[in-house]
Amino acid sequence: MEIKAAVVAKQGAPIQVQTLQLDAPKANEVLIKTVATGICHTDIAGRDLGMSPYQVALGHEGAGIVEAVGSAVTTVAPGDHVVVSFGYCGHCANCLQGHPAKCVRLNELCFGGANYDGTHRLHTPSGEAVSTFFGQSSLATHMVADEHNVVKVDAAVDLRYLGPLGCGFQTGAGTVINGVKPAFGSSMVVTGAGGVGLAAVMAANLYNLDHLVVIDRHDDKLALAKELGATDVINTAQVDDVEAALREIVPGGLDYAIDTIGYTPLIKDCLHALGTDGKLYLVGIAGPLDISGMEVMGESKQIIGLIEGDAIPQLFIPQMIKYFQKGKFPIDKLIKFYSFDQLAQAFADFEAGAVVKPVIIFE
Asked: CA angle, corner 337, sides to 331 and 342, nearest 5?
């Protein structure tokens, strides 16, 4: 079928909406009419860093309505409302132990650009293969995804808000709930008041922490962080020594730190501001850290990388939606809607820090 999709032809090229041909779903796949798709920093990395082979159709925080399913699909049916998330094999040791985000084939299935069987489902009108992103490419009017990517959700909930649960919000909240599991009365710092960071704040606010500190350089985002439960905020544009500012708030050192930015100096500040046995979780895309062994071992600290909040999407996303419905996970406060023809503006606003979570609506 013919669709419209957001495509990057090569590294350094702009994102352009193009007409593509989308293959019908295979036995294990689902055809979805896209309702809304969030924009995430990983889309920017996919555009700029070559995470998937170019040319690539971006998008990985989609929500929509099932139109058709393959013969082997049993978890969704036409008419179901769904969110799409990351791809995983479902049969490696990590998947079978309930950790699909640690799937041994995750990078291949999400960033390899091809289907499970090595074929491509997206093509240009002239027949050239186009890589998928996260196994779905949901910045498009329709998508086909493997059943493992697809999560059935409550049809009574507005789909326009749910796409970011497939990656950014799942990553932030899952890191806290499945990874950190903070102790009552403990302390935490979150770097970055974007979608991932603020989802972590909302999740952490469920644990009654003594100190929940958020670091960013935008006053409006820090104000939102306070509204969502942060006890303290630090604006890096106004503070020369972040480590000292953190030590002033928690003199004995923080229990946990979650970095969503990937900025090495800030990561080191958070590591140094941890107390003995403190844990630093890295969920942003970071470069070389240049950290000595004694900075970690000397006080029994830990640095932990975590993907997608170590979540099982089919279980975790419906749980987040229930908290959203109860007003305890107010993701609507983070979202600004754009039409598909405003895609370039949505990316520009996002990269400028003018919006926390842009969501493209497909009418």
From this structure: 150
